[in-house]
Amino acid sequence: MRYLSFILFAAGLCFFSCGAPAEKNASGIDPFHYEAQKKGVGANGAVVSAHPLASQVGLSILKQGGNAVDAAIATQLALAVVYPEAGNIGGGGFMAARLSNGKILALDFREMAPAASRRDMYLDEQGSVIPKKSTRGASSSGVPGTVAGLFESMQYAKLPFQKLIDPAIELAEKGFAISEREANALNNQREEFNQYNSSASAFHRDIPFKAGDTLIQADLALTLKRIRDNGRAGFYEGETAKLIVAQMNATGGYISADDLKNYQAKWREPFQFAYKGHTVISMPMPSSGGLLLNQMLKMVEDRPLAEYGALSPQSVQLMTEVERRAYADRAQYMGDADFYKVPVKELTRPEYLKERMKDYAPGKAGSSIVTQAGRIQAKESEETTHLSVIDKEGNAVAVTTTLNDSYGSRTVVAGAGFILNDEMDDFSVKPGAPNMFGAVGGEANAIAPHKRMLSSMTPTIVLKEDKPFLVTGTPGGTTIPTSVFQTIVNIIDFKLSAEDAVNIPKFHHQWLPDRIDIEKKFPDSTRLALQNMGYALSERNSIGRVELIRILPDGSFEAIADSRGEDSAEVF
Ligand code: GLY
Description:
The chain is of the alpha+beta class. It folds into two domains: 8-12 and 48-265 and 385-430, no CATH class; 271-382 and 457-571, 4-Layer Sandwich (Glutamine Phosphoribosylpyrophosphate, subunit 1, domain 1). Helices cover 33% and strands 16% of the residues. It has helices at residues 4-10, 14-17, 52-63, 68-82, 146-153, 161-174, 180-188, 190-195, 218-230, 233-236, 238-251, 257-262, 289-300, 305-308, 313-333, 344-348, 350-356, 479-492, 498-503, 524-533, and strands at 39-42, 45-49, 92-98, 104-109, 176-177, 214-215, 266-268, 271-275, 278-282, 383-391, 396-404, 460-464, 467-473, 507-508, 516-519, 537-540, 547-551, 557-561, 568-571. Helix 20 links the parallel strand 15 and strand 16. Helix 3 packs antiparallel against helix 4, helix 4 (68-82) runs parallel beside helix 6 (161-174) and helix 13 (289-300) packs across helix 18. The model is unreliable at 1-19 (pLDDT under 50). The structure holds glycine.
C-alpha cells in the first residue's frame, strides 16, 4: 500500500511531481524519487526502518544474497546518512538477533562515559544541575559505539563490508532529496546548530532548507570511506579520531583518543522469558528494555486483558499500573550491570511481581507516592531509531540505535561530518533530578568513568513454537519499553492485525511524573473514564514509531512501518 500522505505532503515538489524520470544510482536506488511504503507482504525478506531510502538499501542487500545481518548493517549505515536526527555513527545502540540455526544474540554498542567523567560533572558548585551541559554540545557526548557494533556484528554477515557501506557512501557523496519533514526538522535546529558548532556543516546554512533540496554530506562521505578502508580503526583511530578529539578540545568535550581506541562493543546474554506460549528475546542491561518488558508482561499475564479489549478503560488502567510499578523499579535498581549489581532475578520472580500488584485497585488511580520501587532481597535518557529485518532463511534482526534526542548534541564533528550523541544525559546526573525524558535515577545509574548509561532501547524478537513470530522495536526514549509492551499485547492478547497493533493510539506511564501520556487520537470515552478514576492525563503528539515484522502461518513476512513518520517497509 502506497502511503498517501507522504505523497501529498510532497505534492507540488519537483522531486516527486515534475515528471523527471527515475534514475537509479549504483546501488539500484533513486535517491530523488522515493516514497514510504507502509505495509508489505513477501516470502523472501523484509526490512522496516525510519526512512524509505534506508529500507531500500537493506532490501537491495537481501536481494544480492546478503542475510538479515548484512541488511541490518547496510540499513544502519544508510540511516546514518539519510536520517541524521537519529541514524548515526556518532551514537550507539543495541542489536537483538535470532539466527536460523537457533542461536540468539544480544550486542551492546551503547555509548560509554569517557575516562575523564565524574559523578558530579554536570553539577555546579552548589550541587545544582548545570542547564544543558548534559544535553547539548560536546560536553554531553559519550564515546560512540555504533561503528564498533557494526564490525562486531560482521562475524554473522555474509557479504564483504564494502558492499554494505557503499550505498551509504554514495548517498552521502551524491546526496538525496530531503522531505518536507526533514527540511522543517533541520530548519528548527538551525539556531542550535549555529550555537554548538564553530564551523559550517551540511546541516545548517543561512538559507532555510525546503522539501526537495539535495542534502550532500561530503565530510561524512570521507569518514565513511575511511571506515570502509580501515575498518573500525577508520573511526576510532587515525584521522577520524583526531577530528573527534579536536572537536572535544575546541568545544569542551571529554572524549580522549584513548577512550576512542579502547571502546569495545560487548556481546551480552540475551534477555529471555516466556509469555503465553511465546518466547520473548530482548536486551539486557545496560538497557532496561528487556527487564521492563518482562516485568510488565508478567504482571498482566494472568489477567483477562482480552476480555477488557484494546484501549478500554480497564485494559489501559491495568497496563498503566503495571508500567508505573516497573518504572519505579527502573529508577531504583537499573543501571550498567558491569558497575552495579542489578537484581534481575529478584525483580522478575513470580512471587515478587504478584506482590507488586497486590495493591492494584481496579477503577481507582494508583499513586507514585504510594507505589515506590519494590522491596527485594538483593544480595548486595527521544530521538532514536529502530529497524527490523528478516531474511528467507529465517534470520531475524532487530536493531535500535540513538543519538539520544533529535540530532543529539547538535555538535557536528568538524571535518568528519557526523553528529555526536548527547547520551550522557541518560545517566542520572544527580539523584532524583529528571533527565530529558523526565526519568529519575540514583546510585545504580550514577556517572562513572567507562560506565554505560542506562537505556530504554528494546529491540525484540518474539518466537512462537520456537520460530520467529515478531521482530520489533521503536524509538521514543523511556516510552520504548511501554510501546513494545503494548505492541506485543495488541497482537498476542487483543489479537489485533499487525497494522492496528502498530498504529492504534499509545499511552505511557513511567512512575514519575505521575501521569498517563496519551496520543491525540486516544479514544474520548477512555480518557473520560480514566479521569474519573483519578488519573492525570497529558496529551502528546506521538508515542513511538514501531517497526514490526510479523511472520505469517505460511512463513511469509508481513512488514508494517509505523504511520507516525516516514517509516517504510520493503519486502520481496
Ligand atoms: N537515549 C534513549 C535510550 O537509550 O533509551
